[in-house]
From TrEMBL:
CDD domains: TM_PBP2. GO terms for cellular component: plasma membrane. Its main location: membrane. The keyword Oxidoreductase does not apply. PANTHER family: D,D-DIPEPTIDE TRANSPORT SYSTEM PERMEASE PROTEIN DDPC-RELATED, OLIGOPEPTIDE TRANSPORT SYSTEM PERMEASE PROTEIN APPC. Belongs to the binding-protein-dependent transport system permease family. This is Peptide ABC transporter permease. It is a multi-pass membrane protein. Residues 79-269 form the ABC transmembrane type-1 domain. One of its GO terms (biological process) is peptide transport. Keywords: Cell membrane, Membrane, Peptide transport, Protein transport, Transmembrane, Transmembrane helix, Transport. SUPFAM superfamilies: MetI-like. It is found in: Cell membrane. It comes from Bradyrhizobium forestalis.
Amino acid sequence: MTSATLRHSVWILRGNPLTAVAAAGVTLFVLLAIFGPWIVPYDPVVSNVSEALQPPSAAHLAGTDQLGRDVLSRLIIAARLDLAIAVSAVGISFVIGAVVGAFCGYAGGRLDRAVGRFVDVMMAFPLFVLAMAMVAALGNRIENIVIATAIINLPFYIRFARAEVNVRRNVGWVEAARACGESHFSVVLRFLLPNILPAMAVQISLNLGWAILNAAGLSFIGLGVKPPTPEWGIMVAEGARFISTGRWWLVAFPGLALMMAVLCFNLLGDGMRDILDPRMRT
């Protein structure tokens, strides 16, 4: 990062403190995911029925669930799994979608139109329902959740890369690269793709939040991670049975963690859009 970019980023953060708060929140979730197993006060999967359904207290800051497991420990450990699923899925869809979209946008013609129609057909379906169908068909293993989430994220990156490369494929510096003997393959990978990556970083941040919500939604309806693995969607689903009895903490804390994670990634994406927008530098 150059000094000019750093100064611009600081200026944006001063004018939009929510972006700084979102960045701090994302950093906190990442740290919890990395160091969670070493900082949790209790084993997240060991049951202690004698302490079941205890409200928040000094011993259990977020209470205990129906099996006496510490809710806070399960929340912290679940952050690693949910973030791992989201990062893996978005990373796969970003790499494949950016490359496919960039080559289609550069080549144009029938290939571009065919891929464009395929993407349109995919986006015509409710994407969460499509993920449900794929996980139901493949089995609710973690790797299948990652694959399904990656597939439903592909259209965003393919469309974005196609549009951005299509605008840039005949600009002067691309023509100069071709005139210097660069192959079409090299032009796309060395010149066009790096040029659109900053703008795609905004989409990555937004999709990370959506991928977390998608993984939690699949777990909530029983198609995601299997119990007793700590996962935010499972915790909300299990706690929903006890709302009518006043055990609010079983739903409130995992729901709050899920909401804050998605909100932080979305706000960070909005801030990155401001930072990367050339019009904001004037």
